[in-house]
Amino acid sequence: MGREVSESCVDSLLTEIVSTYNNRFYANKPELAARRIEAIGYQVGHQLSERYTMERPRFSDHLEAIKFICKDFWSELFKKQIDNLKTNHRGTFVLQDNRFRWLSRISTDPSVENTESQDPSAAAESKASLATMHVYFPCGIIRGALSNLGIPCAVSADISNLPACSFVVRIKA
Amino acid sequence: MIACVAVVGHQNNPLYIQSFTEADDALKLHHIVHCSLDVVDERVNNPKKSGPTLNETFLGLLYPTENYKVYGYLTNTKVKFILVTTDLDVRDADVRNVSVTISFKC
């Protein structure tokens, strides 16, 4: 569309958003911080979908809109498309990205952990909780984009194997 | 001569109306735009009647009144652009270009 932003700036901004909301604004209330971050993502997704659907013909159904998110929307945001799309044909879609750009820099090495975790399950939990904070923003973006296209939904993310990330979209009937 | 341009949001709420005539007929233009919203909804919800143009953003001539012609353009996010023009021999392509330009500038 004309103006460009350096990608490292975007990465730094997102990391800083998560860290500020968790440590300063809502210091002991991670659920509130998560909702705020998701709301920011909702606004961003809302406006981005308006911008990216300008020229295209209208979508005939939900599947077309989800495919738009998987292909054009994702390419504009992350320079690649969603790798795998699954649906149960009853309103649930799973969008899988095998190398999610914003999570690709998070360490996945299980041996580098803080001293207090004794067993691997606790280590895995603390690592997962750190990463979950970072996916609220992209979940919000997807939810905002779909709401603007007339599809109210709930989006959650599954990060069991980084850097792959699956977004589960449940369309509200 | 375009009499009026209107932008209507996805819940049919008016976002912006600008009239380009010197006369003080803002209310009449409001009425015309309001009536045209029904026509837009009808076009969108009746795939049999609209035929091959179901997924088009530009809806074409919505309806002619005694002095004006009303054209509509619908985006993917259900934002509607309504153009009211007084030209008698306006071409579809021109109006389509105008609508696309308006949507680009937003």
TrEMBL record, chain A:
<dbReference type="GO" id="GO:0006888">
    <property type="term" value="P:endoplasmic reticulum to Golgi vesicle-mediated transport"/>
</dbReference>
<dbReference type="GO" id="GO:0005802">
    <property type="term" value="C:trans-Golgi network"/>
</dbReference>
<dbReference type="Pfam" id="PF04051">
    <property type="entry name" value="TRAPP"/>
</dbReference>
<dbReference type="GO" id="GO:0005801">
    <property type="term" value="C:cis-Golgi network"/>
</dbReference>
<dbReference type="InterPro" id="IPR007194">
    <property type="entry name" value="TRAPP_component"/>
</dbReference>
<dbReference type="GO" id="GO:0030008">
    <property type="term" value="C:TRAPP complex"/>
</dbReference>
<dbReference type="InterPro" id="IPR024096">
    <property type="entry name" value="NO_sig/Golgi_transp_ligand-bd"/>
</dbReference>
<protein>
    <recommendedName>
        <fullName>Trafficking protein particle complex subunit 6B</fullName>
    </recommendedName>
</protein>
<comment type="similarity">
    <text>Belongs to the TRAPP small subunits family. BET3 subfamily.</text>
</comment>
<dbReference type="InterPro" id="IPR037992">
    <property type="entry name" value="TRAPPC6/Trs33"/>
</dbReference>
TrEMBL record, chain B:
<dbReference type="InterPro" id="IPR011012">
    <property type="entry name" value="Longin-like_dom_sf"/>
</dbReference>
<dbReference type="GO" id="GO:0006888">
    <property type="term" value="P:endoplasmic reticulum to Golgi vesicle-mediated transport"/>
</dbReference>
<dbReference type="InterPro" id="IPR044760">
    <property type="entry name" value="TRAPPC2L"/>
</dbReference>
<dbReference type="Pfam" id="PF04628">
    <property type="entry name" value="Sedlin_N"/>
</dbReference>
<comment type="similarity">
    <text>Belongs to the TRAPP small subunits family. Sedlin subfamily.</text>
</comment>
<dbReference type="InterPro" id="IPR006722">
    <property type="entry name" value="Sedlin"/>
</dbReference>
<protein>
    <recommendedName>
        <fullName>Trafficking protein particle complex subunit 2-like protein</fullName>
    </recommendedName>
</protein>
<dbReference type="GO" id="GO:0005737">
    <property type="term" value="C:cytoplasm"/>
</dbReference>
